Amino acid sequence: MEDTNLRVVEVIGFRCPRPSSTNFSLGGLRIDFHALNTTALLSLGTEAETQSFHQRLINNPSLLGVHPFYLLLFIFQERFGTWGEWFTRQWKVLTDVEFATGMTAKEWMLRRADYSMDQPPKSTKVLLEMVHAAHAELSHVETVMKSAKRFGDGAICAIQHLEETREMLGLPTLKKKERGDLVNRMKYVVSRCEAIDDTLPELKEQLDGQINVVFGLIAQRDSRSSVTMAERQILISELAAQDSRVMRIIGILTLLFLPTTLVTVCVRMISTTSLVDLDPLINWVAWLSASVGLTVVVTGCLWQYDRQTAGKRQSQQLKEDNAICTCTMLLEGSQVLRGAN
User: Fold this and answer.
1) Mind listing the pLDDT tens digit for each residue in 302-328?
2) Domain 61-222 bears CATH identifier 3.30.70
3) For the whole model, what pTM was predicted?
């Protein structure tokens, strides 16, 4: 005996992918094949999205009476609005970075009023953080768009399966126009997801280029810092060498006059104490001879010392020349990098 009370139902569970700043949209539908009575359990990402979805249901009550899968269409449309805003924010971040680096042709740049920030950051550290964050977000956008296309394709397959099952059960199905309208609306949202997905490779290429530009700016900044440090080091070396020369001259003059001073003091002491009565001429000759002799000895010692330290001075001069050469190379590299940028 045929059981006329047998009811055929279909249960559908779904999850819409989420942007990085919201939660998943989860839900389940229990559809009665005979009367198309539907029980839905939904959990949307944010309160604003929930209110917007509720308003969409209020504005389109007749469509829900046509087919229960319009509920999936409304969820898909509502979620796509969130995805579109998210994708737009990432695109604006890219334009902000391009404006800050100045590496985009004028005909490709938006008007200044269209940028999301009043003052784009000039710090390379902030720019690097921005481009890496945007790169991660765009990678997530790509994953979300692929999941969104699978969601739309799955909803279309579910519509076809429901209609085929109702036809097998001998139940009335949607009119061709009504079914085509529902499927085409779903396909339209899928096509918009595909359009975003097709744009992502171009944006990621632009973002990779901006990452390279930021790294170039960082290298240029480090090069300038190195050049400044090298210039300061050269200046310090020159000042130290100048001080060393002054001290050396003072030391040489002191040593040259030291013998004469010593002899003068000794002669003065002898004359004052009157221990020995010397003839003035002899006194003068003795003073001159002792002064000249001791000066010659001191000069010879200084010459010998200078000869021994000449090698050390040449080594120090070679280091200074190498520092100057390094500074020159850094300056040339900085100019080349500045010209390339």
Assistant:
1) 677 767 776 666 666 666 666 566 655
2) no
3) 0.59
